[in-house]
Amino acid sequence: MSQTPSPLHNALSLAASGVPVLPLRRGKVPFGNCPACADNACGGRPNMRVTGPCRCAAPCHAWAAATTDPAVIVSPSWAAAWRRAVCVGYHPGGAGLTVVDLDDADAITWARAALPATQIVPTTRGQHWIYRGAMVSRNAVRPGVDIKSTMAYARYLGPGTGTMADLPDAVRTLAVKSPSPARLAAHAAVVPAGVGSGECPHRTPAYLTRGIAMAEQRITEASSAVHATVYRTFLAVLSRHGRCGCLTDTHVARLFTAAQRKGETARHCADAWANARITLGL
To answer: H helices within the chain, ranges in order?
Structure first.
């Protein structure tokens, strides 16, 4: 009968593939800092991307302790932690990955409709959808959904199934913080700054009118992945007309209205619009 690999065995295997690992104790949480690093007296590493001023030999500072160095993983300083470890954690962002943590059946149903297929790992209550690409981590981006990437750890639960896909804009957009009501109103009526005179310089004003109508139709006809479709449509409109000064409040309102008819919230519309502008440098 085959024996379940130990946490240390799994950790070394993951590290060999370039995934930074750390031991997790009961409760599936990192080990606490050692006495010398308690309360980050050492300078700590919680606010650093990968490493920081602390060079403690013990597995301190949670995700920031994650490493791919086998000499560190099997060192005497880590040995006591591995003896008590119940599983392996890893730093997704350090491996250039993002984990969409789906906590329940409703979250899984949403992901199947809104996100592109990728590598899926079953969890105790739901699933981890793993994408190639790192981003900011954020909890509770929607009911039952957390994003774990940079400055976070995830529990290793096996290789999963499916082929890993590139990180989609639909996931990146989820991590945008909810704006204040004042900012939301500003985004809803935004007119992108441009350098033109108010007339579309590409062809004729009819070109813009036709483009907005086509964008509305693209959103309206989306049968799945509505959030991603809205973002890509906003991106396409802004890439054509965002710099010429021809977009008006009315044009933007038409796009937002089409998206909200498909179930998007005002916040998601504002966030998608803002993300598209940032992507294009507007």
So the answer is: 7-16, 70-73, 76-84, 105-114, 169-174, 181-188, 205-220, 226-241, 249-261, 266-280
The mean-pLDDT minimum among 79-83, 167-171, 183-187, 265-269 falls in 183-187
For 49-71, give one letter per residue: b (16+ CB within 10 A) or e. Answer: eeebebebebbbbbbbbbbbeee
- Predicted TM-score (pTM) of this structure: 0.62
Residue partners of 143: CB distance under 8 A and separation at least 6: 106, 107
Q: Write out pLDDT tens, residues 207-229.
A: 778 888 888 888 888 877 777 78
pLDDT at 173: 84
**Which residue type sits at 253?**
A
Terminal-residue alpha carbon distance, the chain: 61
Residue 15 pLDDT class (50, 70, 90 cuts)? very high
| C-alpha–C-alpha distance, residues 84 and 79, integer Å | 9
C-alpha span between 251 and 235 (Å, rounded):
14
10 Å CB burial of residue 22 (0-12, 13-18, 19+) is buried
Q: Residue 184 class from Cβ within 10 Å (0-12 exposed, 13-18 middle, 19+ buried)? A: middle
How far is residue 141's CA from residue 176's CA, in Å, rounded to a whole number?
9
